[in-house]
Amino acid sequence: MKLYEMAIAPNPRRVRMFLAEKGLLNKVQRVELDLQKGDNLKPDFVAKNPMKKVPMLELDDGTCISETMAICRYFEEAHPETQSLLGDTAVEKAQIEQWLRWIDFYLFLPTGMSFQHGSGYFNDRMNCIKEWAQDCHAKVVEFFDFLENHLSTNDYICCQRFTAADINAYTTVQFAKVIGVRISSEQPHLQEWHDRINQRDTASV
Fold first, then answer.
1. In principle, which of 10, 38, 46, 131 could form an S-S bond with 175, CB 3.0–4.6 Å?
2. Alpha carbon of 131 to those of 106, 118, 154: distances in Å?
3. Which pLDDT value is given to residue 119?
4. Based on the domain organization, do 58 and 104 belong to the same domain?
């Protein structure tokens, strides 16, 4: 199997950490793409993923799976012998899915939009709107506060154990540094949770 990625990008990191937690990272051949140079726009890659994004998983039979959580879901279902990160019971699966969507919509998306519209990195390929970047930046700060309040009574994001929700929240909190948002001294519970996840061997993949 081949995992197409750009190692420094946050979504591929989510997948790598997910695979590492399951002990499956060595099951894929990682193929590095340079998005700045447009490797993802080349016809051979577009034929595999018309959305032109990473990560993208290519199975041995040529089947291609795009989108971070779709790739994670594939490995969750294909390897039931590994620890579950997307839930065991109906309640766990629902709670994790809830948090994954909250993290995507209210943390990851505004972080990405603030970076894309405010950093200048994408000025040559999209209409960047400074005001949108500023609004999204404020939403990220607000969600950090939301996480601080939640983690004041929880060691993990949900289900009282480490799950994919922790992976996605952790990698996004770290990604938020690119827009200048960091855990503040007034967010000790968020900091404790971050440090707890940061101590896992998989945090460095």
1. 10
2. 17, 9, 35
3. 82
4. no
